[in-house]
Amino acid sequence: MSGASGSSVGGGRRVVLIGATGSIARAIAAQLAARGDTLLLVARDTEELARDAADLHHRFAITAHTATLDVEHPETFDGFVRSASETLGSIDGLVFAQGFMASQEDGERDHELAQRTIDVNFTACVRLTLAFAPHLAGAGEGKGKTDRARTPFVCFVSSVAGDRGRASNFIYGSSKAGLNAFAQGLRQSWRGRTSVTVVKPGFTDTAMTWGLPGMFLVASPEAVAGDTLRAIDRGRAVAYTPFFWRWIMLIIRLVPGFLYDRVKL
Ligand SMILES: NC(=O)c1ccc[n+]([C@@H]2O[C@H](COP(=O)([O-])OP(=O)(O)OC[C@H]3O[C@@H](n4cnc5c(N)ncnc54)[C@H](OP(=O)(O)O)[C@@H]3O)[C@@H](O)[C@H]2O)c1
């Protein structure tokens, strides 16, 4: 692992950010860095990571380490996690912001793409979270603001697409639904030890959605990142971003099955 070091190690927390070269992840990294957190940026592109780490160090005088990882290779996870914990010591936060989405038609035609969708969005989150578990800092979850700030956290960037399967996007949606159920159980299991948060963005202006037809109410990665950090700070179980997706998805979830089956969303 390598990194750009500040003269002072950040006054804040030590956070691992998976999928760090993505648009939403970059916005999250900048907002964490602005608080003085020490970061481990993790993604596939070593050169981009080095550029991002140098930029964060330059702008915020924090320490930003980098590690190259392809999350489709679980056989490398144990070694990666060991080396991450050697670099950071105990870890205060894990943010999963990697993601892959092929079109539904491509996924149905090319099953490798369907498999990759599940592996990147779901399997990697499960296996890496379990592998990181022994390395998360051991603070108790308290009720006060100060206690919460000391509580280790895991945050999964999921999607509104996981709330109900849709004909136009159910391979991706099911990978996020699996992630949501995993996070829900993990939150119960780790209560009092680590806070677990799922963030569900709606359409966001990033490489993943570039050129997609039918997008509406499109949010910026910075707005999604701001909502993500607020949700983590408040120890939320689930946060929709922007907020109005909570109500849109509530309506969609309430449509009775016999009607839902007849509409094409
Ligand atoms: N954009 C939206 O409208 C939207 C809406 C709801 C939820 N989300 C979720 O938000 C999260 C962030 O997505 P984004 O919109 O910021 O997309 P993005 O800019 O395309 O970022 C995705 C990131 O995931 C990384 N990644 C993909 N496959 C990987 C692999 N095998 N190993 C390691 N890293 C891998 C990519 O790295 P490479 O550059 O190396 O490919 C990239 O850094 C995702 O979980 C996505 O599902 C997005």
What does this entry look like structurally?
The chain has 265 residues and is of the alpha/beta class. The protein has a single domain, classed as 3-Layer(aba) Sandwich (Rossmann fold), CATH 3.40.50. The chain is 45% helix and 15% strand. It contains 10 helices and 8 strands. The protein has helices at 23-34, 46-60, 77-88, 104-109, 111-132, 145-150, 170-189, 221-233, 245-254, 257-260, and strands spanning 2-4, 14-18, 38-43, 64-68, 93-96, 153-157, 195-201, 238-241. It has an 8-stranded mixed β-sheet with strand order 1-4-3-2-5-6-7-8, sandwiched between helices. Strand 6 (153-157), helix 7 and strand 7 (195-201) form a beta-alpha-beta unit. Helix 1 (23-34) packs across helix 8 and helix 5 (111-132) packs parallel to helix 7. The longest helix is centred in the middle third of the chain and has 22 residues, at 111-132. It is globular. The model is unreliable at 6-11 (pLDDT under 50). The chain binds NADP nicotinamide-adenine-dinucleotide phosphate (NAP). NADP nicotinamide-adenine-dinucleotide phosphate (NAP) is lined by residues 19, 21-25, 43-45, 70-72, 97-100, 120, 157, 159, 201, 203-204, 206-209.
